[in-house]
Amino acid sequence: MVIDGVADPTARVRIPLATINRHGLIAGATGTGKTKTLQGIAEQLSAAGVPVVMADVKGDLSGLSKAGDPSEKMKARAVETGDDSWTPAGMPVEFLSLGTDGIGIPVRATITSFGPILLSKVLGLNETQESTLGLIFHWADTQGLALLDLKDLRSVIAHLTSAEGKADLKGIGGVSSATAGVILRALVNLEADGGDTFFGEPELETEDLLRVVGGAGVITLFELGAQAARPAMFSTFLMWVLADLFQTLPEEGDLDKPKLVFIFDEAHLLFADASKAFLQQVEQTVKLIRSKGVGVFFCTQLPTDIPNSVLSQLGARVQHALRAFTPDDQKALNKTVRTYPKTEHYDLEKALTSLGIGEAIVTVLSEKGAPTPVAWTKIRPPRSLMDTIGNDAIKAAASSSPLNQKYGQTIDRESAYEKLTAKVAGAPTADQSLDLPSLPDLPPPPPAEPEGPNIAEQILGNSAVKSFLRSAASTAGREISRNIFGTGSRRKR
């Protein structure tokens, strides 16, 4: 704690491990020390045996894997902030990249498991287009067509806008050519930005994020890779990971320490231009994932970047300096002050514009779950390196990781694209061709007749089923037959 401008090393401000899963916010203007605060929190959690997932948006958190610089300045800062036992130390770190064009271990997700709501967020679709995408996902499910990568989704949309496809959707709504064109153009743009390297298999298994090595929690750093041109893709992917954890982790109740802590850097990207359905699901996830033993921290420049419904769920607050150069800045400052408990010791509006680098206004939850008094705090220095280790070192660490053997090579198995292509060409699939006799042994073919409906078509043709699906599509088309965020059910732990 800082008192009259001087740090008191005996007055420590700490977050109890048991309240970490009540979530938190780290905010402040650029250059005020947010990243180093994240680094310090991550390494202390790791030392306590808690795995951490972080977005390394700017690429400057790789120093967590290497011991810090034991300079006199660093030692003096440690003593000033009450860390008399400060010694340099690195943490176990995994470097992962979205898609195959990054420097870390490539990670992917299938289109099916990503779901229509999250994919709509990435593509920038409106609510009508999002609902149409949900209908497309539903139809693919009923036909047993796996949507693994972008070409699978494109082929399904092309089929559903054809004469044959329109008949398939008769009775449960249709896909207009205009809406399909918007979605297809958005898919092409996503592919041009590197999205084709991200969607596919092998898909990331989120249990790989829960590892502990030698008593220390593994810190998983995600870098953008080819998604640098589309940062919304990055933040939405992290939300997909969190949603998958929500679906698959068992209920734990209150734990002495969390099973995992999830940190969203540049969190404003997650909420910018988000649909109402997306925001509702984020709020639900943040509310309920606490009971799964997972803590979530958002890091952004302004607390107003976070919707009020989500902000109200965050127990710990670490607010670095704010700037008030414009009328909008002043409004944001006033709103920020009103979100803190009242204090007689600080003029918060003045304090928030007077904080030095590496200082913050902090309030957390006590062991009893009550907010602690507001404290002007000087952040203790990380024990790991406060710099990047360089791309060569990251590549070497990624190539030597056991996860690289699991995720390094792309798999392209038969899915919607191959099945629909074979159907259009009138050719049997590879498996069917093994069971067919040669053509000379067949009797002359009868006159052409319309092919009978398959089982899925018979079901969809039933009037009762049509009525149900029509109602479901109009009420919540983007979430038909799906769970949170429209993501498909996957593994069970």
Give me some keywords for this one.
493 residues, Rossmann fold, alpha/beta, 10-stranded mixed sheet
Tell me the fraction of residues in β-strands, as a range.
5-15%
- Computed CA radius of gyration, to the nearest angstrom: 26 Å
Percentage of residues in helical conformation: 25-40%
At the fourth level of CATH, the homologous superfamily of one domain is P-loop containing nucleotide triphosphate hydrolases
Mean pLDDT: 83
- The unreliable regions are 429-443, 463-482
What is the overall number of helices?
20
- Supply the CATH class of one domain: Alpha Beta
CATH topology of one domain: Rossmann fold
N- to C-terminal separation? 42 Å
Structural class: alpha/beta
What gross morphology would you assign? globular
- Spatial strand order of the main sheet: 6-5-9-4-10-11-3-12-13-14
Largest sheet: 10 strands, mixed
Q: Quickly give the CATH architecture of one domain.
A: 3-Layer(aba) Sandwich
